[in-house]
Write a sequence for this structure.
């Protein structure tokens, strides 16, 4: 029985882990898909479509899955990392994982808020939050600028997060 518990703990620890290093091309492509989903969500919300809630739940699921376990169960991240990126000829550029995980956390908070706004029929707030998420996903996708990563590094510099949470962050400019 004890062996089974240890095996299950290892499985859970591995499942709910996030990669130490992230391929920048993959991160930017995932952000591009977030742009597409946010655009569909804006169109659905503006047109009072019933699909807005389903789109927001899909967006939320993506951020929750990427925050909790990296690309393992995120449909978009799996598509990008297993199918699209291997077929591209871009040189791999690895970046530290913890700041990207923090950015996924921020996206998760925003997408949860969007879903709540839609459920509560507060479309104006949903549109505002979706537009903000769309803006920051665009910065990541098109310019490689991760605002969440900048906030993460700022929080480390102000001792709001422990420095050892990301040793590689001290040497890399975002």
């Amino acid at each position: 029985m004890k062996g089974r518990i240890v095996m299950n703990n290892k499985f859970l620890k591995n499942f709910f882990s996030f990669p130490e290093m992230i391929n920048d091309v993959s991160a930017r492509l995932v952000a591009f898909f977030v742009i597409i989903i946010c655009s569909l969500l804006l169109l659905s919300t503006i047109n009072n479509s019933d699909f807005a809630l389903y789109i927001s739940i899909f967006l939320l699921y993506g951020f929750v899955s990427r925050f909790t376990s990296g690309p393992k169960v995120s449909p978009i991240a799996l598509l990008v990392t297993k199918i699209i990126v291997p077929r591209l000829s871009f040189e791999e550029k690895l970046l530290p994982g913890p700041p990207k995980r923090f950015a996924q956390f921020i996206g998760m908070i925003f997408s949860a808020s969007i879903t709540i706004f839609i459920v509560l029929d507060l479309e104006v707030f949903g549109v505002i939050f979706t537009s903000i998420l769309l803006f920051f996903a665009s910065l990541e996708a098109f310019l490689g600028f991760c605002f969440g990563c900048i906030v993460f590094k700022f929080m480390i510099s102000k001792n709001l997060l422990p420095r050892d949470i990301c040793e590689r962050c001290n040497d890399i400019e975002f």
Observations:
- Residues 59 and 111 are 6 Å apart (CA to CA).
